[in-house]
Write a structure and sequence with these properties.
Blueprint: H1 2-30, H2 39-53, H3 56-73, H4 78-102, H5 109-133, H6 141-144, H7 160-186, H8 192-221
Helix pairs in contact: 1-8, 4-5, 5-7, 7-8
């Protein structure tokens, strides 16, 4: 029950925050005389955005952005590793959260078998992508100095480039936790209580990984309009 609450609150918080930032930026660009924020204006804009996203033109535009980005970052045979990574993430997220949220018994049967197989594919493809793209997301000397301070406000002033790098390595870290806890929960050398703890950590890390991926997609693929 606690995981369900955390999932709902986490998704609502991240999606609400991202949509509000988009509303502020796009709304200011579209209105000649920006008005103070109002809930009515926000929900009207949100409904119009939802309708626009469901159109064929929006789908084609998103597909073109994704194809161009993939071709430039994962050329040649690397696109197949990226495809395997994407498919494994989609299946693992869909199956994992569906059973965690709606099936009290947990995952079992063929979905569990598929989860294990795609988990192996995820581990392999994530390792390959880190080896291929890790250098592109390494922190420069000036960027690394930002984290010498532990003050919370530092995260309010991250550049888009630095934020993308932070999200990339956060995703990699949560991915490592996913692989490690999945293996630990299946090894007989650990006690039943320890394996249960691994499963709880696995679920919590999966939620953090999902939220990180949502923000990374927003920062990387969705065009930003500024006033």
């Amino acid at each position: 029950m606690l995981f369900i609450i955390l999932t709902v609150i986490g998704l609502l918080a991240v999606l609400s925050r991202l949509s509000y930032i988009r509303f502020q930026a796009v709304g200011a660009a579209e209105r000649k005389n920006p008005e103070p924020f109002s809930a009515k204006a926000y929900w009207t804009w949100l409904r119009s955005r939802a309708k626009a996203i469901l159109t064929r033109e929006s789908y084609k535009k998103a597909e073109k952005i994704f194809v161009d980005w993939t071709a430039s970052h994962y050329p040649g045979w690397m696109k197949w590793i990226f495809l395997a990574f994407g498919l494994s993430v989609l299946y693992l997220a869909a199956s994992g959260f569906f059973f965690a949220l709606f099936i009290p018994r947990g995952m079992f049967g063929l979905p569990l078998l598929g989860h294990i197989i795609l988990g192996g594919l995820f581990a392999f493809s994530l390792t390959a992508l880190l080896a291929w793209r890790g250098r592109a997301y390494r922190l420069d000397k000036d960027e690394a100095t930002v984290f010498e301070s532990f003050a919370c406000p530092v995260f309010k002033n991250l550049s888009k480039t630095l934020l993308r790098k932070v999200l990339f390595w956060a995703f990699a870290a949560f991915g490592l936790v996913q692989v490690s806890t999945a293996l630990g929960s299946m090894l007989p050398i650990f006690t039943f209580e320890t394996q249960q703890a691994f499963i709880a950590i696995h679920r919590t890390s999966a939620l953090a990984l999902l939220l990180t991926a949502i923000v990374f997609i927003d920062v990387t693929f969705i065009p930003q309009r500024r006033p």
